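Session log. Operator J.P. requested a structure for one protein chain; no other inputs attached. Running the standard single-chain path with token output.
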Amino acid sequence: MSTDLTRIRGKARKQPGLVFTSLYHHVTDLDNLRSCYEALDGDKAVGVDGVTKEQYGEDLEENLQCLSDRLKRMGYHPQPRRRSYIPKPGSEKGRPLGISCFEDKIVELAVKQVLEPIYEEIFEDSSYGYRPGRSQHSCLDMLGRTIQQRRVNHVVESDIRSFFDEVSHNWTLKFLEHRIGDPRILRLISRMLKGGIMEAGLVQASEKGTPQGSILSPLLSNVYLHYVLDLWFSRRIKKQCQGEAHYFRFADDFLACFQHKGDAEHFKNRLNDRLEGFGLKVAEEKTRCIEFGRFARAEAQRRGQKPEEFTFLGFTHYCGKTRKRNFRVKRRTSRKKFALSLRGFTDWVRKSKAVLRKGEMLRRAKARIEGHLNYYAITDNSKLCSTYRYHATRILFKWLNRKSQRRSYTWKGFMQALKWVGWPRLNVRKDLSPHRSLEAI
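Structure written below.
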């Protein structure tokens, strides 16, 4: 299958206008389905049928052969996704997820493996979300480098209201038809989109949206926004600007940088009409144009104000200075993300003290703090990372000592226990200094 995918990618690269009319046999291929089964994580949440990877693998060859036969005769119908919620800032209910059944995950991964090589060749460099070899840090790195080194004086930050819930199925299929001419692939994706959501025992039909939590959803959302925003900016907005214009998108989070205020205001004013044409809406309360760049601090001080800041991908970006008093883009953990992360850690410790032994609590707490630092411990953000580590350590000490009526640890004993588990050290995990050479990225 890897050879076939390489061949598909090669064709997509050499023939940008090619419409692929024969792809479905890759999805139904038994060896491909088997490799997708092996690639899936068996510890993930189960769907409405409750079947785990281990249970599905008890009669693996028979199950996969049956699945392949149903796919070939178009007799496969995905089951409704199970609704689940995860914490979301500003929402009591949380962020909604759609959990697919294990067999449906196999099919979703098979379709993704076929489509991804085609679209990776046409996606814009401005798109970073859920793409091989790209991450939030690479997006932040290029954003900081652009503001630092190019003629950027204004930034437009915006947000799409409930993007994943509002994606139009009709527009999604129309966008896919630009490169995918196999009607069986399109029909299968249509069935996945309209599979429905089960919540509180009731199934709700899916008339729009692509649920977060689905394996295929990130790719479909990238395809959607590729045509709605990415190409629009590069082929229309950028060419109409009087000065420089730059655009960055990670999934449904995006912002644009401009040299001139008029260009920034023009983009901001046209954005809502553009999105509404494809069934989407701008969150007006989160959309603004600010002055940001090497001259922003001086201009703000001249008006007796502080330079403005913006938040992107969990970091607050602000106008800083180097030791030589030159302009530099700096970042710190956003206040909302910092509070949410610390609150989540506290809730976990309180619940875990009744079910986990002390040693296991220490190991899992270490993993949680490591995860936070792996993302937020970047250049210029050491202070807030140190603060997070300080508070998390004391929260853990407090609740460990409430596991029983007797005091579990003295502070000295607690420090020895942290040393035993290899408590995370504070160091920069991602160097995002814009002064590094491009070869060092």
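Operator note: Confidence is low (pLDDT under 50) at residues 437-441.
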